[in-house]
Amino acid sequence: MILARAIDATRRYGDVTAVDQLNLDVDTGELVGLLGPNGAGKSTLVNLLTGVRRPSSGKVELCGGDPRDPSTRRFLGVTPQETGLPGALRVGEVVDFVRAHYPDPLSKDELLAKFGLSDLAKRQTGGLSGGQKRRVAVALAFVGRPRIVFLDEPTTGLDVEARHALWQGIREFHADGGTVVLTSHYLEEIEALARRVVVIGGGRVLADDTVSAVRGLVAIRRVSLTSGVPLPDLPGVVSTEQDGDRLHLLTADADRLVRDLVTHNVAFRDLEVRPTSLEEAFLTLTAA
Ligand SMILES: Nc1ncnc2c1ncn2[C@@H]1O[C@H](COP(=O)(O)OP(=O)(O)OP(=O)(O)O)[C@@H](O)[C@H]1O
Q1: What residue ranges line ligand 1, CB within 6 angstroms?
Q2: What is the pLDDT of residues 139-157, one digit of tens each?
Q3: How far apart are the C-alpha atoms of 31 and 168, rounded to whole Å?
Q4: pLDDT at residue number 211
Q5: What is the Cα–Cα distance from 24 to 16, expressed in whole angstroms?
Q6: Which of 44, 153, 183 for a ligand 1 pocket mutation test, highest count of atoms within 8 Å of Cβ?
Q7: How far apart are CA 258 and CA 166, in angstroms?
Q8: Ligand 1 mutation pick, 17, 19, 24, 43, max ligand atoms within 8 A of CB
Q9: Using CA atoms, how far apart are residues 67 and 63, in angstroms rounded to an integer?
Q10: pLDDT at 284 over 80
């Protein structure tokens, strides 16, 4: 069953088209990463799919219904990009408050244990660190045993250990059949959690595939070398970065680039050719 669907969805803010005739289906049991540069439209898409905003045109569906309908929202868990917690309440009290909104919530202890938060149960949220607040905010999305969870940049600002604790909670939910859509700027996060990655740019879907396929799609290689002399103009180089004597060239045809360097008698050493990172891949896609 399709749990979240955008059909030709467009959302405008004045002159800005944040989401532009976008189509997306998220099936039951999927874990989907939305990836894209700042301002690509990821949060707006999440806001449309979770009923926070209405599309200017087109349609969105959640669990086969309208995401603004309370009976549909029972199946939904969300952590927006920015959240506020009532500072005077203890973590356990906030969990109880949210639990009260759902017919069959997780127990407080189970939720806190799943997300490694048991030690914080009696702490007032106002006294928590930024990272601890974020972990509580993400855990709250799972209280109501949702069928689908949307997490907008869930681990921004978290240290490695806290990030891994959250990933563990998300993975367990997914392993039990839960559906997850997350946006992230952490490429390792998308790679660590999701097999499907939807690359968003300019409010549109630029690619929708596996992480490795998205990399393969652009097939850009990074050729790094050390050279004391300026390089001649070489065909097929899409960008050049310089770090002292070390040069990093991006190209779709690394073999040709290396042959050209030799043909031009460029003195170089420490040649390295490697696939691009996902970030480089999406920058290339969004520049297309
Ligand atoms: N409430 C709003 N009012 C006006 N413009 C908005 C509003 N929300 C988003 N926008 C604009 O819509 C575009 C898409 O923004 P959005 O926040 O969806 O992108 P994003 O991919 O989530 O970015 P980021 O990674 O920085 O969070 C941007 O140009 C943004 O300035």
Answers
A1: 13, 16, 18, 36, 38-44, 81
A2: 999 999 999 999 999 988 8
A3: 13
A4: 81
A5: 21
A6: 44
A7: 43
A8: 43
A9: 8
A10: no
Sheet of strand 31-35, all strands in order from the earlier edge strand to the far edge: 76-79, 148-152, 179-183, 31-35, 196-201, 204-210
Phi/psi class of residue 186: alpha, beta or left (left: φ > 0; alpha: ψ in -120 to 50)? beta
44 C-alpha to center of ligand 1: Å? 6
Q: What is the mean pLDDT of the segment spanning 183-206?
A: 85
Ligand 1 atom 11 nearest Cα: 18
ipTM rounded to 2 decimals = 0.96
Residue 15: the pLDDT is: 95
Atom of ligand 1 minimally distant from the CA of 185: 25
pLDDT tens sequence across 88-112: 999 999 999 999 999 999 999 999 9
This model's pTM is above 0.90: no
Q: How many Å is the Cα radius of gyration of the chain?
A: 22
Q: In what order do the strands lie in the sheet with 269-275?
A: 237-243, 246-251, 221-226, 269-275
User: What CATH number belongs to 218-287?
Assistant: 3.30.70.250
Whole-number Å distance between alpha carbons of 157 and 137:
13
**Per-domain residue ranges for the chain?**
2-210, 218-287
Which residue owns the Cα nearest ligand 1 atom 16?
41
Residue type, 20: D
Place of tokens 């490695």: 160
Q: Give the position, in ligand 1's atom list, of the atom nearest the Cα of 43.
A: 22
Å from CA of 67 to ligand 1 middle: 20
Per-residue pLDDT band at 279 (split at 50, 70, 90): low
Four-way CATH pick for 2-210: 3.40.50.300, 3.40.50.2300, 1.10.10.10, 3.60.10.10: 3.40.50.300
